[in-house]
Design goal:
Elements lengths: L2 H9 L24 H13 L4 H13 L10 H29 L8 H29 L4
Length: 145
């Protein structure tokens, strides 16, 4: 291998660099142990952030300890997806109710305004509750400011 091809190979290698610690260099070290599957999971997370494993573990543990990030259960993503789907379905139901009411009530005879408003109020309340639940799950997932 000549020098130019060695330089090309090195130029494509991603260099992991850790930012400077705000409190100065870290002088305290301790050992963290993982089994093989746990290590694979943690290493994959560090790789996604393009960080060295020890740097990633330190950053994440500090973020959790200082409550910048709140850990949530593994199924929180599924719960959020279900809430988002439910919200969309409720909006479509509300839209369909409006269309049905207008179709059934062209001369304002079959369905009273009071009945229609009561049904739509229930749909609006259901949408509001799903919105609140969705926002709560999203708050728990995202980084705190």
């Amino acid at each position: 291998m000549d020098e130019s091809s060695a330089e090309e190979t090195l130029s494509h290698v991603s260099v992991r660099r850790r930012g400077r610690e705000p409190g100065g260099p870290r002088s305290h070290r301790f050992k963290v142990s993982f089994n093989d599957p746990e290590l694979a999971i943690v290493q994959e997370a560090a790789d996604r952030e393009n960080q060295a494993l020890a740097s990633w573990v330190g950053q994440v543990s500090l973020a959790v300890a200082t409550e910048l990030v709140v850990p949530v259960s593994a199924d929180a993503k599924e719960v959020l997806q279900e809430l988002i789907q439910s919200r969309g379905q409720l909006r479509r139901i509300g839209d369909n109710l409006n269309r049905v009411a207008y179709a059934l009530n062209p001369d304002e005879g079959a369905v009273t305004d009071t009945q229609l408003k009561a049904v739509l109020a229930r749909v609006d309340e259901a949408v509001r509750r799903v919105d609140e639940a969705t926002l709560q799950v999203m708050r728990e997932r995202r980084t705190r400011s």
